[in-house]
Specification:
The chain has 155 residues and is mainly β. It has one helix and nine strands, in the order αβββββββββ. This is Spore-associated protein A.
Length: 155
């Protein structure tokens, strides 16, 4: 279901860009279809940012993106997105993940050009932790950058 929602969001984004181009909207400065909205906005308009972290390599010399933890009071859902800041437009292996202490997990691993996620988890009354991963190459090749939180954001 999460994968389907992610696919639907990407298809809708591509469709909106196509409509704008067909209507004669200027393409200068327009982001490619499926491009990252930035700052976790892929989760939806009712979501607010709870936390965000830079994805770093183990030596701290590389960063390929950011991971965002978002929450919607309207839906009581948590959301995680990983946005690329390097290798944008090139398919590299990424993952956005969120989990509860009770073991429920939502994640979106794969080769992506702009972002991984959004992944959603309904967890009222539970603490969550989140993580993000971005490699410099496809299929878990190249340099790894990552972030993993501890449990927190208990609701």
């Amino acid at each position: 279901m999460v994968r389907l929602m992610s696919t639907v969001r990407r298809a809708v984004s591509a469709g909106l860009v196509a409509v704008a181009v067909a209507a004669g909207a200027p393409a200068i400065g327009a982001a490619p279809a499926g491009a990252s909205a930035g700052y976790g906005e892929q989760c939806g308009p009712s979501y607010r940012e709870l936390d965000d972290k830079v994805l770093l390599s183990s030596d701290g010399r590389h960063s390929f993106g950011d991971v965002y933890l978002m929450y919607s009071a309207q839906t009581q859902m948590n959301c995680v997105v990983v946005d690329k800041s390097s290798y944008v437009g090139t398919a590299t292996w990424m993952n956005a993940k969120i989990e509860t202490r009770s073991g429920r997990v939502a994640q979106d691993p794969g080769n992506y050009r702009y972002y991984a996620g959004p992944v959603y988890l309904y967890a009222p009354g539970e603490c969550v932790r989140y993580s993000g991963v971005a490699y410099s190459g496809p299929n878990k090749t190249g340099t790894l950058t990552s972030y993993s939180s501890g449990f927190g954001w208990c609701g």
